[in-house]
# Entry
Amino acid sequence: MKTLIISLLLLTNLFGYEKGELIPQQMASHIGCDGDKIYVIDFFASWCGSCKKELPLISKLNEQIDKTKVEIIGIDVDKNVEKGIAFQNALKEQGKLNFRVINDPQNLIISEFAPIGMPTLYYVKDKKIVGIITGAIDEIDQKILADLKELE
Amino acid sequence: MKITVFLALFISLFFTGCIKDVKPWEKGTLSKKTVKESGINPILNQFEEHIYFSKEASKGGGGISGGGCGCN
# Structure
């Protein structure tokens, strides 16, 4: 009985993708991360304060990277898709969002990844998760740049 | 008997919707100003803090730490 209870408790945290796991083909092609590049997948929302700080830095980074080798993909998890798009457009007008964004109003993508916090970044190479950054980090662009150098 | 009671407790605890945790990506509603203690008007919170400070000479300690997501 003790084992059963412990197993049930552990199972609640075992549904998300972990480092080293392969993303199923269907999900990879839905996101568009099934090519031979390194993909940086950034989950964000309009209500997430840290995401607002990080998005301009990631966009700045997007201008510096070699796009034949690396692609940044944003996933907006706002349940209100109109609010999400308005948030994205406001950033785009200021030049603070310059990468491809997928809207996930039903949270189908993020519930598969199931990160433990927001914002969260995933590095994907050959459909395999090779790194995860959870939570707000100062100078995230420098951190991603350093990680990409290691991954290339 | 003991097992029945235990099972009943177990089922009521683990299979009820009341203990469903809020996932990090579902905190959009919780980050709204209307969910905060002072509601949509932050000045109400300042008034309350002023009462504590002037009547009880106590300040601070009323904050709630977040999960590091900076949602608020």
